[in-house]
Description:
Elements: H1 2-9, E1 14-18, E2 24-27, H2 29-39, H3 46-54, E3 61-63, E4 69-71, E5 77-86, E6 92-100, H4 102-130, H5 132-164, H6 169-191, H7 198-208, E7 212-216, H8 223-244, E8 248-256, E9 259-266, H9 279-290, E10 294-298, E11 304-310
Parallel strand pairs: 7-8
Antiparallel strand pairs: 1-2, 1-6, 3-4, 4-5, 5-6, 8-9, 9-11, 10-11
Amino acid sequence: MISVKDAFDNMPIAVCFFDKHGTVRLINRRMLNVSIMLLDSEMQTLTELHNALEAPPKQISVTDGAVPLYTFPDGKTLRFEEKTVTDANGTSFIQVTAADVTELAKRQAELRKENEQLSEANRRARRLYENMAEIVREEEILSMKMRVHDDIGHSILSARRALLSNEDIEAVRSNAAAWEKSIELLHHANNMPEQPDPMEYAEKRAEALGVKLIVNGDLPNNSKLRYLFSLAVRECVTNCVRHANGNEVYVTVSADGDGYTAILTNNGRVPDGRITEGGGLSALRRRIEKNNGKMTVQSLPRFALTVSLKDDEK
């Protein structure tokens, strides 16, 4: 009998048995220690245990959930479970166990914290997504302003060199005209309102810059594609004013298989040589290729920008 009691006491789980009246009949050393922490005395009845678990001492914290977890002053977290068992003689007993789930509780706490952080990240992502159009617009306007500021600085330096070297007045006037055009672009960038449709915005922006936008063919209804095509239109309008001194931009749109292709040209000056992609065209190319599209730039016999995009909604 002593060896059986020792084995019962050394079980890795706290356990005790109550008879049908709720009186303790067998309890191991681990459960005895648990009862002392819960009741400040040895447990005698199942009712005592129920009451202690319902309103535990202040030093024992409870984590609410489908199955409550109890964290004791020694740092261990226990999960209590109650069920009815029957012995070989057919006598029923109520078995109560208290399993050590300390590590599991720690993992759950860490997971809960990570889930909270993930939820916050998702909330921030949703807010960012809701404001994405305005953020992108501000970034693009900032990019254009930086290019215009560079142009203004270049014009000022060129005018200064022209004045210092006593160049022809026409050279000075040319630099002044470029300077004026850059300031005009900067003014319109500061005062352009946002439009609900990206192509409407591109058309209004072109109109504000003195450029007529002529579109042949039907643009896709896919909002992502309309936005990407509008970026191409806006870049071509800006470059038409800045570099080609034109006032019309032509957009020819055609549907092809699983997507659309747009070819953009203008009525401005023909480029002097091969076009080197700068900040605006390079940024546009990154956007197009990031969305599995293709972009080509033609310099001669005249400027042409071709953008092809796949339509996932087709």
